[in-house]
Write a structure and sequence with these properties.
There is one protein chain. With 396 residues, the protein is an alpha/beta fold. The chain has 16 helices and twelve strands. Strands 3-6-7-8-9-10-11-12 form an eight-stranded parallel barrel, surrounded by six helices. Strands 1-2 form a two-stranded antiparallel sheet. α7 (185-194) links the parallel β10 and β11. The longest helix has 16 residues, at 275-290. The chain folds into two domains: 3-280, NADP-dependent oxidoreductase domain (TIM Barrel, Alpha-Beta Barrel), CATH 3.20.20.100; 311-392, no CATH class. The protein has helices spanning 32-44, 60-68, 91-105, 121-129, 132-141, 156-165, 185-194, 209-212, 216-225, 231-240, 255-265, 275-290, 311-323, 329-336, 366-378, 382-392, and strands at 3-5, 12-14, 16-19, 25-26, 29-30, 49-51, 78-83, 110-118, 145-152, 170-174, 199-202, 245-250. Bound molecules: iron/sulfur cluster (2 copies). One iron/sulfur cluster (SF4) binds next to α15.
């Protein structure tokens, strides 16, 4: 296992982190015996960063991790877990969630604590206004939590606003070879690093899509250059090639995935990809991009939309549907466009004012394309379902 040092606090973190959101499960219930064994085996092989969240596996993930880390394993690892901001209407909600988390995780200290899935600056402002950040600082003073961070899904512009709005101890972003210029992207990674903020990467393989949904043409190219490298290995090596990345989280569901990823993590180092390998990624990306519906590069020049549409975010979710044969595309779209945030940024919010099109270097007919996005990604039942979810969660 290779390790990288957290530049803020000196923690020596395994470059592979275990994401506990896709543990082996049967009929929605985690296969406890198997998951605990996978976690403990990974610790024996050097993994020391475990990422969970209040909501993973419907609340079972934290409890499972707490059980897996009994018998002396807790002392060998760092635990990361997350507070869901959309469930926090007042500070007391956050306090109750935290108590539950400590109990489930069977610990008196959470090493890395994140605001979960910030999608825009308004979400962070709301947490700050409710006193959540001050409360977290108190907890840090008492060593109940050790590091305060956030995970992010939103536009590059919002990432920049959030990352500069608070002296974060770390952040977590979606990053992989297809998302080099999407969401926080490479520029966000470099910005966080330049501010001295460690970066944890999530979705390194787009939830397995860069393993299971690749066009055959792409698989052949990978095989021709390194027959022994799997698509997962290609994807992970691309991320670890970036020295700015501290930990890559993989949501592992099988023993083989754990073993294969650990093997890759014991070989991959930064700035090690050859020119030929980098050319392979360029070629693969170009093939994938051919399948893409809207040639948006996520440059963000069209932003902000005065009516709150996350234009590059809409196009990214739309493209994924066709590129990766994404089955859960409406859920992914809802998540990426902040369905549960204060101001969702759906394509259907476009009033066709046309301002954005004046700035698009790709000359995309943004209004026309957003109509297509809304038709495909939202459909008839989308808004009522999202509206009902927001009502249940009391989101205004
Ligand atoms: S055309 Fe639509 S997306 Fe573009 S700025 Fe106007 S409302 Fe926003
Ligand atoms: S300006 Fe054009 S290419 Fe850039 S993010 Fe907006 S739609 Fe995409």
């Amino acid at each position: 296992m290779n390790y990288r040092i957290n530049q803020k606090n000196g923690d020596k973190l395994s470059i592979l982190g275990f994401g506990c959101m896709r543990l082996p499960a049967k009929a929605g219930i985690i296969d406890e015996k198997r998951a605990i064994k996978m976690i403990r085996d990974s610790i024996k092989k050097g993994v020391n960063y475990f990422d969970t969240a209040y909501i993973y596996h419907g609340g079972q993930s934290e409890s499972l991790l707490g059980k897996a880390l009994r018998d002396g394993y807790r002392q060998k690892v760092k635990i990361a877990t997350k507070l869901p901001p959309y469930m926090v209407k007042k500070l007391d909600n956050a306090k109750k969630i935290m108590l539950t988390q400590l109990e489930k995780l069977n610990t008196d200290c959470i090493d890395y604590y994140l605001l979960h899935m910030l999608t825009d600056k308004a979400m962070f402002d709301k947490m700050a206004d409710l006193g959540v950040m001050e409360w977290l600082e108190d907890l840090k003073g008492q060593e109940t939590i050790k590091n305060i961070g956030f995970s992010f899904h939103g536009s590059r512009q919002d990432f920049e606003l959030i990352v500069k709005a608070y002296p974060w101890d770390f952040c977590q972003i979606q990053y992989n070879y297809l998302d080099e210029n999407n969401q926080a992207g490479l520029s966000g990674l470099k910005l966080a690093h330049s501010l001295g903020i460690p970066v944890i990467v999530m979705e390194p393989l787009r939830g397995g899509k860069l393993v299971n949904n690749l066009p055959k043409e792409v698989l052949k190219i990978f095989e021709r250059v390194h027959p022994q490298w799997t698509p997962a290995e290609w994807g992970l090596r691309w991320i670890w090639n970036h020295k700015e990345v501290n930990v890559v989280l993989s949501g592992m569901s099988t023993e083989d995935q754990v073993n294969d990823n650990i093997e890759t993590a014991s070989q991959a180092v930064s700035d090690s990809l050859t020119n030929q390998e980098i050319e392979v990624f360029d070629l693969v990306k170009s093939i994938i991009n051919e399948r893409i519906k809207v040639p948006c590069t996520a440059c963000g020049y069209c932003m902000p939309c005065p009516h709150g549409v996350n234009i590059p975010g809409c196009f990214a979710a739309y493209n994924d549907k066709f590129l990766l044969d994404e089955k859960m595309y409406r859920w992914k779209y809802a998540q990426a466009l902040g369905a549960l945030s204060a101001e969702p940024a759906f394509a259907s919010k476009c009033v066709e004012c046309g301002r954005c099109e004046l700035h698009c270097p790709q000359n995309i007919e943004i209004r026309k394309e957003l109509k297509a996005v809304a038709k495909t990604m939202e459909g008839v039942f989308f808004r009522p379902v999202v509206g009902a979810a927001r009502k249940i969660l009391k989101i205004r």
